[in-house]
Amino acid sequence: MKITVVGTGYVGLVTAACFADLGNQVIGIDIDKKKIDNLKKGVIPIYEPGLSEIVKKNIKNKNISFDTNLPKAVKKTDIIFIAVGTPPKENGEADLIYVQKAAEQIAKAMNDYKIVINKSTVPIGTGDMVKNIIKKYYKGEFDVVSNPEFLKEGTAVEDFTKPDRVVIGNASTKAKNIMGKLYKPLNAPILFTDIKTAEMIKYASNSMLATEISFINSIANICEKVGANVEKVAEGMRLDKRFGKYAFFSAGAGYGGSCFPKDVKALIQIARRHDYHFTILEKVEEVNYKQREIITNKILNLVGNPKNKLISVWGLAFKANTDDMREAPSIDIINSLQKLGAKIYAFDPVAQEQAKKMLKNVKYFNSPFDAAKNADALLICTPWNEFLEIDKKQLKKIMKKPVVVDARNIYDPEEMKKNGFKYVSVGR
């Protein structure tokens, strides 16, 4: 099929590359000329395992191309995905200005039947908005579809190619048939529904996952007080089929990234606009940000007054296998420590360039050991694999004080104590 993907950010680029890899002819569109020039050379703007190889392969076999000319791409293709950013406004609502601009440009360039698909996470009712924009400029036949993405950063390529489900919101038989054919190679369950329900499924899914994270962090905080082990609690819960083995029950520093914080805020605002207070979700958000304070306090309890003390931070991205620093817990924790006078040394295997844009007065190093040298305390903030088998004896030797706050529970408490560390984790 001939496809245009508008927006080559995280969702757009993964969508474009993976559809090209299935044998479709795909054009990736962006207004950022520098980004497009780099993509034409196979240089991708984000870190995502496996994505660079797929982009380069499909540039070579001519299944994917990149351009800044949206009208030209619309005329040449039958399916157009809108995958532009929907950043939060100050009040938490999703800003739809880029969706509106994309819809208008698409409408003005349409020359035949097209399916216009909202791939971005958008508030309920956005499909109707896009439909009305297109009707204003184009009088022919078209369909608008809601097809939310369910990609996890760090495993996005696998999530696209082996999805749990594909959600397609549209009542038209023609659109259903074409979309069903488009996704058939993935052999995934396809849920056909109306547009507004599809839009709600995305918000509901992300908000439920965020709720699981805040829930297990609250359980972890109680575990610490009563002497229980949150990891065993989570293991016992996952064995219940009603939760399942993939439940987001890993205690830590809370959720971050581009999706959960934004989508939780947006759903709270959607509810308020309809005179409903989503109390549970409001508390989920409150618990999440409180968890960062709890991690900061763990450090303060061990080091005392942090003024002029050196705190080493391993891992800056909001999760492993990504360079995404958006809403990363490390930002709030580091800022809090710096306000109290601490010096911060940091290491992250891929996120340091992104971190430099968001964190000031942090000294970065090219290895975890260099970042931990002479430190008064070490904070594990992102569970990168390379931290798992680190030489504990060597680590203790280079640190000024053997103090470790493990905000991701990657180490065994007994092993750390045997190696002479003053060690605390979350809920254990």
Secondary structure blueprint with pairings:
Layout: E1 2-6, H1 10-21, E2 25-29, H2 33-40, H3 51-60, E3 64-67, H4 70-76, E4 79-82, H5 97-109, E5 114-118, H6 126-137, E6 142-146, H7 156-161, E7 166-169, H8 173-183, E8 190-193, H9 195-226, H10 230-238, H11 260-273, H12 279-303, E9 310-314, H13 329-339, E10 343-347, H14 352-356, E11 362-364, H15 368-372, E12 377-380, H16 392-398, E13 403-406, H17 413-418, E14 422-424
Parallel strand pairs: 1-2, 1-4, 2-3, 4-5, 5-6, 7-8, 9-10, 9-12, 10-11, 12-13, 13-14
Plain-language structure description:
By secondary structure, this protein is an alpha/beta fold. It folds into 2 domains: 2-193, 3-Layer(aba) Sandwich (Rossmann fold), CATH 3.40.50; 285-424, Rossmann fold, CATH 3.40.50. 45% of the residues lie in helices and 14% in strands. It has helices at residues 10-21, 33-40, 51-60, 70-76, 97-109, 126-137, 156-161, 173-183, 195-226, 230-238, 260-273, 279-303, 329-339, 352-356, 368-372, 392-398, 413-418, and strands at residues 2-6, 25-29, 64-67, 79-82, 114-118, 142-146, 166-169, 190-193, 310-314, 343-347, 362-364, 377-380, 403-406, 422-424. The strands form 3 sheets. A 6-stranded parallel sheet has the order 3-2-1-4-5-6, sandwiched between helices. The longest helix has 32 residues, at 195-226. It is globular, with a radius of gyration of 23 Å. The termini are far apart. The mean pLDDT is 96.
